[in-house]
Amino acid sequence: MTEEFTPPPLPPPFTSNKTPPVLLAQGAEARLYKTDFLNPSFPAALKFRPSKPYRHPILDRRLTRQRVLQEARCLVKLLKEGISVPGVLSVDWNTGQGEDETGNGGAWLLMEWIEGPAVRQVVNHWEKWMKHCESATKGNNSGMNENFERSAEEDIRSLLRRIGRVIGALHKAGVIHGDLTTSNLILRGQSNENTTNIDPHSTTLKPNLEGEIVLIDFGLASQSVQVEDRAVDLYVLERAFGSSHPRTEIFFDEVLKAYRESFKGASSVLETLKKVRMRGRKRSMIG
After folding, report:
1. Region (Disordered) spans which residues (predicted)?
2. Is 216 left (phi over 0), alpha (psi -120 to 50) or beta?
3. In CATH terms, is domain 119-286 a member of 1.20.1250.20?
4. Average pLDDT over every residue of 132-150
5. How many helices (H) and strands (E) does the chain have?
6. Whole-model pTM?
């Protein structure tokens, strides 16, 4: 017999909302919702960190408060620096005064909703489209094929350069993201036609790679100007491209070139990145 699904409890004041928030993702530490709590025409992202019954209540309150405030402070700092991240609308670090999860304890952060596809989705679309185009033009005029491929590759290179610049601005501001993947980069500014109607399995429609790069999900973020921390941040993104976007990985140097030009200390970070790569390879060999 299949048990009926019971939605996880919401923190107050969102329990009294006429239209309940929509649960989008649930991780080990937090749940992400889309809500129109403020205004039906103004959606927002609600990140709720429920309390953990297995932790001592005092430690749980301290850790939950520390993490939600760290995320909010990083976002506010980046916004002041003019970096594209979600705006902070509200934060509560003591929901339910630390009660257990059934009492809706924990902390929450209400943020601006960023409309647009994830870079992961767009790059995957581009790779599938390129594969389809190569198959369709196989045996045709080689000069035309070379021109087409050069143009298509320049589009993806341009996207990667924009990513490099925004990460450079992030690090220049003294913030480490902690989870740089293409799922945590959003392309904002595309038309509804290009964002809401993308078929991730389509191979015939040319992907739109235009738009402003917005960084999201600062749950693991910290404030640091250490070269090592910055290099590890870049290494995480490089590994993400290697595992999720094998065709695009060969252009990752475009990210690093744009990053190098973004702030004064970038060259030192890239030198340290080489050492981080070597350590990563050794770990992979050892298992």
Report:
1. 1-20
2. beta
3. no
4. 70
5. 7, 9
6. 0.86
Neighbour count for residue 103 (Cβ, 10 Å): 13
The tokens describing 45, both together, are 């992202």
- Model pLDDT, residue 18: 73
Classify domain 14-112 by CATH number.
3.30.200.20
The DSSP result for 180-220, as a single string, is --GGGEEEES--HHHHTS--TT-SSSPP---SEEEE---TT
Q: Give ranges for CATH 3.30.200.20 in the chain.
A: 14-112
pLDDT tens digits, one per residue of 77-122: 999 999 999 999 999 998 765 444 444 578 999 999 999 999 999 9
Provide the β-strand partners of residue 25: 32
Does residue 24 register a pLDDT over 80? yes
* pLDDT score at 254: 98
Chain region(s) in the chain for CATH 1.10.510.10:
119-286
Type of residue found at 50: P
**How is residue 10 written in tokens?**
């919401």
Q: For the chain, what is the mean pLDDT?
A: 86
Tell me which amino acid residue 159 is: L
Distance CA 19, CA 89 (A): 19
